[in-house]
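lol forgot to send this yesterday, sorry. struct tokens for the thing we talked abt
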């Protein structure tokens, strides 16, 4: 027996869900005005398809293609807030996924480079970026664990998959004074979100909160 998608939401119900969505972000600690404005502008419902589309405004991760997930909105908001993106910043995002996080970042930064090992996800995200007229995002398929050395250094780096330690290539592509936010941990049950600041003398590490992300995998996917 196959499930059938729920009927589309009416305008009033959709508006109410979006209002609850923003209220929920604030209640989880997303309080920076620019971040909230970006997440109000970028409709998460555009990035969730199929059976789960009716749950787009709930604060939960949801499955997407290629065995990946779209992160729960409060985590997207908290990671974006921790990244402290300025209007002149160039950002690298590792792990395009649905494209939702990159779209939020695009509302805050001068330019966003996003990379994913799944070509299908990159193609689908690019289509959404065009539809939303987000012209300051460059998406490409590649091994995100190696970053984008030809575009480095970056003011900000955000990683949406967990490694045991911050990858050396990504640390080396961060500008002096730059910030990287990423989950680290040895398993999918014990992970911490950390913020790394690059200083003249090295790196400063700050643990933010426990999280759970898919693992950061080297190389390209076969899809």
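and heres what i got for the seq, position by position
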């Amino acid at each position: 027996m196959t499930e059938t998608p729920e009927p589309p939401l009416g305008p009033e119900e959709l508006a109410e869900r979006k209002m609850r969505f923003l209220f929920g972000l604030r209640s989880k600690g997303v309080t920076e005005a620019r971040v909230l404005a970006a997440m109000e502008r970028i409709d998460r419902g555009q990035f969730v398809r199929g059976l789960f589309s009716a749950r787009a405004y709930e604060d939960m991760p949801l499955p997407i293609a290629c065995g990946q997930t779209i992160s729960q909105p409060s985590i997207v908001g908290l990671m974006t807030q921790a990244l402290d993106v300025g209007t002149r910043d160039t950002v690298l995002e590792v792990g395009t996924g649905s494209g939702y996080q990159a779209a939020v970042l695009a509302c805050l930064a001068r330019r966003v480079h996003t990379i994913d090992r799944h070509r299908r996800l990159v193609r689908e995200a690019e289509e959404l970026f065009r539809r939303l007229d987000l012209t300051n995002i460059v998406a490409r398929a590649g091994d995100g664990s190696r970053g984008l050395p030809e575009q480095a250094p970056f003011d900000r780096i955000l990683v949406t998959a967990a490694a045991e330690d911050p990858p050396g290539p990504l640390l080396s592509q961060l500008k002096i004074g730059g910030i990287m936010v990423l989950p680290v941990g040895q398993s999918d049950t014990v992970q911490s979100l950390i913020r790394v600041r690059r200083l003249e003398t090295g790196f400063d590490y700050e643990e933010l909160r426990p999280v759970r992300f898919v693992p950061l995998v080297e190389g390209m996917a076969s899809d």
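The longest helix spans residues 11-27. anyway ping me if u want another try
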